[in-house]
Amino acid sequence: MIGNDIVDFVQAHKDSNWRRRGWLDKIFVPEEQKWIENTDNPDHMVWLLWSMKEAVYKAHQRTLQYAPRYNPKSFVCSSLATTNSFLKTGQSQSKGRIYTAGYCYETTSVMTTDFVHTTACLTTFLIGKKVAKVIENPKTTAIFTNAKSHLANEMSNKYEFRKDTLGIPQIFEGTNKTPFLISLSHHGRFGSYFLTL
């Protein structure tokens, strides 16, 4: 199963003071807090780890089909490897693993100076083509429209998106739910989607 999350660094700075007393203890286990303490850019590490947890939360909710409930410390980042190409390309990529309730998810994160975007997949979930895209200055309808256009280019334009009773977006062809998956995210100036085809 899949999930994705995006964090706009400007919006995160406005909305959240992660440095306030007790905040890190509510969200991150001690090992994750060490990663934050030992990095050159603690702000970016906080939002990278947050984005990883949030993407996995969405994938896990889809996997188990349960109503939304979030306990960030139950999603434990066990590994994180980052490429240091930021100076050359203006972005870096990180791969990670998160464990929760006996499940393992793999994450891929792309970080720029403006945002971090993470996609997550259950490690035992075999999928075909994966498509992830970030959209600047979107409205929710623009994210859907962009994803639908991408799907139409790849497959056909017969597909539509609907949320199920848990609020999880699904892809339908007429009245039939397809095996294709979509995850949507929005924060501040950015929106994103992650499709499997």
How would you portray this structure in words?
This protein is of the alpha+beta class and 197 residues long. The chain has a single domain (2-196), classed as Ribosomal Protein L22, Chain A (Alpha-Beta Complex). Helix content is 31%, strand content 39%. Helix 3 packs antiparallel against helix 4 (42-64). It is globular and about 50 Å long.
* Residue windows where pLDDT falls under 50 for at least 5 positions: none
What pattern of helices and strands is seen along the backbone? EHHHHEHEEEEHEEEE
Q: Mean pLDDT, nearest integer?
A: 86
CATH architecture: Alpha-Beta Complex
Please report the total strand number as a whole number: 10
Primary descriptors:
alpha+beta, 6 helices, five-stranded antiparallel β-sheet, Ribosomal Protein L22, Chain A
What topology emerges from the helices and strands here?
Layout lengths: L1 E7 H7 L7 H5 L2 H8 L4 H23 L11 E7 L3 H4 L2 E9 L2 E9 L3 E8 L7 E7 L3 H15 L4 E5 L5 E5 L2 E12 L2 E7 L1
Antiparallel strand pairs: 1-5, 2-3, 3-4, 4-5, 6-10, 7-8, 8-9, 9-10
Offer a concise description of the structure.
The chain is of the alpha+beta class. It is built from 6 helices and 10 strands.
